[in-house]
Amino acid sequence: MLKNVNPSRTNAWQNLRKHFADMEFVQMQKLFESNADRAEQMHINWGSLLLDYSKNKITTETIEYLVDLAKEVDLGYAIESMFCGKKINVTENRAVLHTALRDFSDDGSTIEVDGVDVLKEVRATRDKMKDFTEAVLNGSYVSSSGEKFTDIINIGIGGSDLGPKMVVEALVNYRNDLNIHYISNVDDDYLFATLRKLDPKKTLVLIVSKTFTTQETIANAHHIVKWLNLDKEALSQHLVGITANVPKAISFGVKESNIFPMWDYVGGRFSLWSSVGLSIALAIGYDNFEKLLKGAYEMDQHFRKTSFEQNIPVVLALLSIWYNNFYGYETEAVVPYSELLNKLPAHLQQMIMESNGKDKNREGYPVNYQTGTLIWGEVGVSAQHAFFQLFHQGTKVVPVDFIGFVKPFYNCEHNHDILMSNFFGQSEALLNGKRGEVFEEGEIEMLKNFRDFEGNKPSNTILVDKLTPESLGSLIALYEHKTFVQGIIWNIFSFDQFGVEYGKVLAKNIQNEIKTKNIANHDASTSFLLNYYLNK
Ligand code: F6P
What we know:
Blueprint: H1 11-23, H2 28-34, H3 38-41, E1 43-46, E2 49-52, H4 60-72, H5 75-84, E3 112-113, E4 116-117, H6 118-138, E5 151-155, H7 162-170, E6 179-183, H8 188-195, E7 203-208, H9 215-228, H10 232-238, E8 239-243, H11 246-252, E9 259-261, H12 278-284, H13 286-305, H14 312-327, E10 331-336, H15 344-356, E11 374-377, H16 388-393, E12 400-407, H17 413-432, H18 447-450, E13 459-466, H19 469-489, H20 498-516, H21 524-535
Parallel strand pairs: 5-6, 5-7, 7-8, 8-9, 10-11, 10-12, 12-13
Antiparallel strand pairs: 1-2, 2-13, 3-4
The site of 6-O-phosphono-beta-D-fructofuranose (F6P) has 14 residues, from loops.
C-alpha cells in the first residue's frame, strides 16, 4: 500500500525550508546572468516535446532537494503500485488504472484486479469501439429509419464530458463529417437550442455515465428520448450507453449490444481513454483515437521509467510544490497558444482540483500544509488581452505553463509566427520585466513608474512539434501524472471525490423540496433564497 509520510516532516522538506530562506527574494534575471548554461541545464527534450523550466526561481540545489523529497515519500513505489493495479484508491477500495486503457505493451504482461485480467477486457472494449465506430462511419449501422447518422449527441457531465469535448475540439483538423454535440448542464435553453438544429431521424445519442444515476445526465437523456419520439425498438437503435451500471442502462431502453463498459478502476476525470471516448473515436475515426492513446502510452513509459530529474511530469509536479508550499503561490495558469485547446484549462481544472482538493492526509487527519493548487487559464493570445496585466504588474505571482506548437496544422506560417512571437515574448517579459521610460519629451517623469515592471515571474515552456492525436495524448497524460505525483507527495488520496458527491445529494434533496413546495430546515440564507425562488 501507499506509504503515509508527512512531507513536512521529511529531511528534504527541512532542507527546502532552509534553502527557501536563501531563495525567497532571488532574482531570476541574476541567475541567468551568472550562468550562461542555465537553459541548457534546465530543459528536458523528450521526443516531440520540449520542457524548458529554466525560468523558475530555482537552482540545481532546489531540484536536488525536491527530488530528495520525491524519494523520501517513495514516489517510485507509488508509481509502480499504480501501474501494477494495486488498490491505491483506498477510500473506495479500488485500483487506479487509467494507464491500462492505453497499454499497448506486447510482452504478454498482465494486470490483474480481483482475479480479472484488466488488459484483456480493455482490449476487447477497444475492439468493440473500433467495430462500432467503423459501422457508424461507413453506414452499416444506421438509424431506425435506415438513414446514415449525421449527428451524435454525447450526454454526460464532469469526466463524462470535459475530456472528450476538449479532445474533439482540439483535433478538429482530424475530424470527419459527423457532427458531435455535447450536452452536460441541465439547461433547457442550451438543450433546445442544440436540438433545434438536428434531425431526430439521423441522430445517435451516447449516454455517458459511470453510475447512470447522475441527475443532470439522466434528466437530459429523458428530454432527448422524448424529442427522438420513437417506439421502444426504434429508440434502442438510437441509444448507446457508456456505463458501469448495465442494468440501469438496459431499463432506460439501451439495448445490451449498445452498452460499452466503464470500470471501477478508472475515475471519471481520467476516463477519456476508455469507451467514454467513443465520441472522440466517432469524430476523428478509430485509428486517430488509437493514436491519441498511443501518445499517452508513450508518456506513461517516460513517467514510469525515467529518473526523477529527467522526468517531465515529476519535474513539473515538484516545481508546483515548490511554489505552493514554500512561496505560498496559490494558483497556477495554463495558457495554450492554440485556439483549439481552449477547453484544456477546464479539463485540467477537473483533473487537478477534483483530485487534489483534499484536506485530510492518508491517515484521515487534517494536513498541516497546503495541498491542491488552483488551476485556471485561457488560450493565448486572447489571455494576454484579458488577465496578463495582472501577471505583469499585479501584486500576486502566478506561475504559468506556456504550451505552444512549433508547426501549425496547415502550412500557413505567417499567422503562426505571429502567434508564437507572442508565446516567446510573454515568458521573456515575465522573466525580465522592463524599466519604465518616459516616452515623449515633456511627459511627466513620474509616468515612467507606471511603465515599470519588475519581471521575475516564473513560467514553464512546453513546446510541442505539432498538435496531433499523439502529441495531445502525451500532453494530457503528462498532466495526469503531474497530478498523481503531487497527491503522493502531499500524502492525500487523489482518486475519490466525496465533496462533489455530497453536492449531488444536496441537489436531489432540494429538488424534492421545490417539487413539493415544502422547504425543509436550512440555514437562514438558504431558506430565504428557496422561499424567494418559490414565490417569485
Ligand atoms: O463531478 C463528480 C463526478 O462524480 C465526476 O467525478 C464524474 O466524472 C461526474 O460526476 C459524472 O458522473 P457519472 O459518470 O457517474 O455520471
